[in-house]
Design goal:
It is a single chain. It contains nine helices and 13 strands. A hairpin with a 7-residue loop joins β7 and β8. It is an alpha+beta fold and 301 residues long. It folds into two domains: 3-171, Ribosomal Protein S5, domain 2, CATH 3.30.230; 178-291, 2-Layer Sandwich (Alpha-Beta Plaits). Strands 1, 2, 3, 4, 5, 6, 7, 8 and 13 form a nine-stranded mixed sheet that branches. Strands 10-11-9-12 form a four-stranded antiparallel sheet. The radius of gyration is 19 Å and the shape is globular.
């Protein structure tokens, strides 16, 4: 039995600070308006392809088998070429799933690029990004991460949709500003973005705040409107709310990661190291990372 192994495809993790849900019957045009940023650390995808009588696809995240519905939805686009094949799709990252780090979008992109490579296809980056976006929004695991992760940097998503359809604009981000992220647990994106009550509340607040950010597309304004959005929508609650308010009282620019029981803080490295100690003392179970902004999209390690 011959086995082919893809390159190790790395796709940046992505954080959203605020968003507006835009439904559409065409998944390429469905998505979100919003604003966020990609992180220098990401999700790595490797695929093993075998010709075997034991046909099937298995998906793993940090060596643990998962249902991998988004990766499977991507693989369906290559179905004709995968007859009589066994696929092992392996994703790995420091970041947990369902915590707001765009792991499903990154996994979808990584799967598309790795399969394109393994099967000797010549699909463009745009085509692969659209495949990943369709898989993500169809599975309701995210709405706007893919178009952002295909580019890197900090961005405003001005119009919804897949790469080539959605419109994004680079958001000013001083190079010395780093990001601390911390998570207290998981949160289901699907439950929130399929709730009509939450959609109405999210879209009401985000419309006004995104207009304010468009008029002043700076990091300070992004941090301001992100916190207002998290608070006013009621998405920020419980222990996460208490921790963020505690940090803000200590003069840290903290807000909620959309969508997860997670937070982000922007600042200079030495300040974030102090912030890490404060969070550890406040909640020893919190998982914490410090990263810079990504300046690239998917790449081979």
């Amino acid at each position: 039995m011959s086995t082919k192994i893809s390159s190790r495809w790395s796709v940046p993790a992505h954080i959203t600070g605020l968003f507006q849900i835009v439904e559409h019957e065409n998944p390429l045009q469905m998505g979100s308006r919003g604003a966020g940023f990609s992180l220098s650390s990401g999700i790595i995808t490797t695929i093993k392809l075998s010709q075997s009588s034991n046909i099937g696809i298995k998906v793993f995240y940090n060596e643990k088998e998962i249902d991998g519905k988004v990766s499977l939805a991507v693989a369906e686009n290559f179905q004709e070429q995968l007859k009589n094949s066994t696929l092992i799709i392996e994703h790995s990252s420091d970041f947990p799933m369902q915590a707001g780090f765009g792991t499903s979008g990154a996994g979808a992109i990584g799967t598309a690029f790795a399969l394109n490579e393994l099967l000797g296809n010549n699909k463009s980056n745009l085509e692969l990004g659209q495949i990943a976006h369709k898989a993500e929004v169809s599975c309701r695991t995210g709405l706007g991460d893919v178009i952002a992760q295909m580019n890197g940097f900090a961005e405003m998503r001005l119009e919804p949709g897949a790469p080539g359809i959605g419109v994004i604009k680079k958001l000013d981000w001083p190079v010395e500003e780093m990001i601390l992220t911390a998570t207290l647990g998981t949160l289901s994106t699907k439950e929130i973005i399929t709730s009509s009550q939450m959609i109405q509340k999210i879209n009401t607040y985000s419309k006004k705040l995104l207009e304010e950010l468009k008029r002043k597309p700076t990091l300070d304004e992004f941090l301001r409107v992100s916190y207002i959005f998290a608070s006013e929508t009621g998405l920020l609650d419980g222990n996460l709310k208490k921790l963020i308010e505690y940090l803000r009282n200590e003069n840290y620019c903290a807000s909620m990661i959309m969508l997860g029981k997670s937070l982000f803080v922007v600042g200079k490295l030495e300040d974030l190291e102090e912030c890490r100690n404060i969070i550890n003392n406040y909640n020893s179970n919190a998982k914490i990372w410090i990263n810079s902004i990504s300046n690239i999209g998917p790449t081979v390690l």
